[in-house]
Each structure stands twice: as structure tokens, then as C-alpha cells.
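Bench notes, afternoon.
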Amino acid sequence: MLDLLVKFFTDYGYAAVFACLLACGLGVPVPEDITLVSGGVISGLDYANPHIMLIVGLAGVLIGDSTMYIGGRVFGYRIQRVRTFRKILSPKRFSQIQKKFKKYGLWLLFVARFLPGLRSPIFLVAGMSRRVSYFVFILMDGLAALISVPVWVYLGFLFADNLDLLMEYVHDVQKAIYLGLGVLVVAVLALYLKKKFKSRMSETLDEEGQGNTAEHK
């Protein structure tokens, strides 16, 4: 995949990278990380400027993600009648994502950027629910993109002359990202459980206080 994308981007430059990232955002099964790395590689081979490639990468990623969010917001639940979107967001997956939104809140939007395969349906649900404004959506997605996009583009740029070594580093970074996400999920879940425990304790104490007051009367 990397060799194929590098050749394609070498021939067609920034426009090809941008178009490919848009397709990724729409759920086309092309790895976004490898697309960004390939853009970095052609920069390292002097076919493009790495800093411009970074801007193109950020634009392609955020516009592609926004397309899914806006589609969900404009068409709402009707979008599931379209066969293409029904494949991306089945009723079962929709229900699962709704539960995760209730559990993790806006953090799910941040984490979604690092979850290939779940990114598009999560952004669709965010738009369909209409509980998340576009400003909040683009803020959370943008913060995540400012982490992921530079990493992949500059990794490709730095190791453009050794693709085998580059792919080893890509796999190492992917593992590090998943490990970091695991730690983040555990931390958020711990905060959620702590908050829920405090809420229940507070309710119990209130009930006991009301009971004691009633007894004194």
C-alpha cells in the first residue's frame, strides 16, 4: 500500500493526498496513517514541501471528518436509509456508539481520530444526535489531528530513503498510540466511576438525613 500511494502521490502531488484523505474521511477503506506517511515520503524525496504537506494533511483530515459530521447533522436518522452509510453505521453499531457517548462524552470525539474503522461512524452519530455543536466537534477533532497528522507526515519525511525501516517505525508508533489510548480510556473510566460513586454516596446521605428528620418529627 505504501509503495502504491508513494508512486501515486509522486505523480499527482498535494491534490492526490488531499483527495485520498477526503476519501478516508468518507469511510473508504484506505489507511489514513499510511496516506499521511506517504505524503511525508514524497516530501522527503523532494517532490513536495513537508510543511505544506502538513497543512494539506490537516485540511484533508478535518474536511473529510466534517463531511461525515455535517451529513449526519443535516440528514439525521434518514442518512441510514442510504446503503453506503448503512454499511458504515449499522443499527447495532449506532446503539453501541450512543452508549459510549453517554459513558465517555466528548472524549470519544478526541479518541475517534485514532480509531480506524470507528472514526466515520462516531462522527456520523455526533452529527445525527445534534447534541454536539460543530465548534465543539472541530475543536476536539482538531486537537487530535494536531497530534496525529504531524507525527505521520514528518515520520515519512525523515525516513523517506528507507521504507522498510519506516514501516517498522510506523508499527511502533501505532502500538504506542494504542497504548496511550488505553491509558486514557482507563483514566476517563476511573473518573467516571469516581464521580458516579460520589453521586450515589451523596444521594444516600441525603436520604438518611431526610429519614432522621422525619423520625424527630
